[in-house]
Write a structure and sequence with these properties.
Rossmann fold, about 20% strand, 11 strands, alpha/beta, 2 domains, 12 helices
């Protein structure tokens, strides 16, 4: 049974329980953690779940209400899902036969359930790579804004402390325009999930012009673009992480910094630093990592870290439902 250790987790569970959402779990048959988390969500009334399988092994859990089991090898939905996938991908050279083969994969089957409204979101990744989980979503569901960026956000939680980090899972080397999109998406996520105003640091190995290089310049350019857009959240950069986290260091290195208090949200200049950064905080600092949650898709599909515990998977399932609350 999931132990709620802080108000952030409790708030997510309380909020999602009021939404009556259905989340599809493609890995339920071969991931004990996913199955346990999904059944807990259903039993506690957090969300309804659809468990995908290729055998009858999970049929005993189907109660016709909060838990539905779909055998994708026998489902009446298979042909309609394949037909819809073909229509969406035929311009990319996908044939109907290709589509029929693709929906025999649980991740594609689950994605099509979300796209066609049979489920409100999908959560996977405990046993599959991020690229395998997100490939169907990027091909079928796509970005909210045509041609727009899709990014990820991580919430690091310890007691009542919440740190937000992005992008830690998707974009390898975002340019300045992409950093702006990531920053804006992350600001919205902080407000939606944490319920506070973000205090954002755009990170670099340079603070306020102390260093030079292409990486520094793109962060500097992103800050200038945010300034021109007159965004409605507080941000500053480029800055080193010590200046973002310590007021005395900030006074020394960045006297006119727009952040009057320490940053609670961190935008990394590339995927290397983002992924390393959140894992260092998680493993050395004892923070629980919730995510990566995917930002910018039309409908919610979220990745599970392959090291996630059952408790963390419950929270990601809940967050997926919250992400789609206005769908």
């Amino acid at each position: 049974m999931t132990a709620l250790h802080n108000s952030f987790e409790a708030k997510i569970i309380a909020k999602v329980s009021e939404l009556n959402k259905t989340i599809v779990l493609p890995e339920a048959e071969y991931s004990k953690r996913v199955l346990t988390a999904g059944l807990e969500c259903a039993q506690k009334g957090i969300v309804k779940v659809i468990l995908l399988a290729k055998s009858s092994n999970l049929n005993k859990y189907d109660n016709g209400d909060s838990v539905r089991v779909i055998n994708i090898t026998k489902s009446d939905l298979t042909d309609s899902l394949a037909s819809a996938l073909y229509q969406k991908r035929k311009e990319k050279g996908v044939t109907l036969e290709d589509a029929k083969k693709l929906v025999t994969n649980e991740l594609y089957f689950g994605t099509m359930l979300v796209e066609l409204g049979y489920a409100d979101g999908m959560t996977a990744g405990a046993e599959n790579s991020t690229s395998d989980v997100l490939r169907p979503a990027l091909q079928v569901i796509k970005a909210k804004v045509p041609g727009g960026l899709v990014s990820s956000v991580m919430f690091l939680v310890k007691d009542e402390n919440i740190i937000t980090m992005s992008d830690c899972a998707l974009n390898l080397e975002p340019n300045s325009n992409e950093l702006v999109q990531i920053t804006k998406q992350t600001a919205l996520s902080v407000k939606k999930y944490v319920g506070i105003d973000p205090n954002i640091a755009l990170l670099s190995y340079s603070t306020n012009g102390s260093g030079k290089g292409d990486s520094v310049q793109k962060v500097r350019d992103a800050v200038e673009l945010l300034r021109k857009e007159k965004v409605n959240f507080r941000y500053a950069g480029e800055m080193q992480v010590d200046a973002a986290l310590d007021s005395e260091t900030r006074k020394l290195k960045f006297k006119d910094c727009a952040l009057k208090s320490n940053a609670n949200t961190f935008i990394f200049p590339n995927l290397d630093s983002g992924n390393i950064g959140y894992k260092l905080v998680s493993k050395l600092g004892g923070y629980k990592a919730i995510g990566p949650l995917i930002q910018g898709l039309r409908r919610p599909v979220n990745d599970i870290s392959r090291g996630a515990s059952t408790d963390e998977i419950v929270l990601i399932i809940a967050a997926t439902a919250i992400e789609g609350e206005n769908e």
